[in-house]
Design goal:
Layout: H1 3-13, E1 23-28, E2 34-38, H2 39-52
């Protein structure tokens, strides 16, 4: 990883004070901007998936 990329990642995470808000990864949008993925964002997505989960139907034999 280049020094420039490391410095950019470090500067992005400096604005995220609590561990649940610290970046766990990054997405790049259509304009080339990096968007931090936080632990809270992942937890929220999992919670939404849990709410939408439907049990599979039993197979007919």
């Amino acid at each position: 990883m280049s020094l420039q990329v490391q410095q950019k990642q470090r500067s992005l995470t400096e604005f995220l004070p609590r561990p649940s808000l610290q970046a766990r990864g990054f997405l790049v949008d259509e304009h080339g901007r990096e968007i931090a993925i936080t632990e809270r964002m992942i937890q929220q997505a999992c919670e939404e998936l849990d709410q939408q989960w439907v049990a599979p139907r039993a197979a007919n034999r």
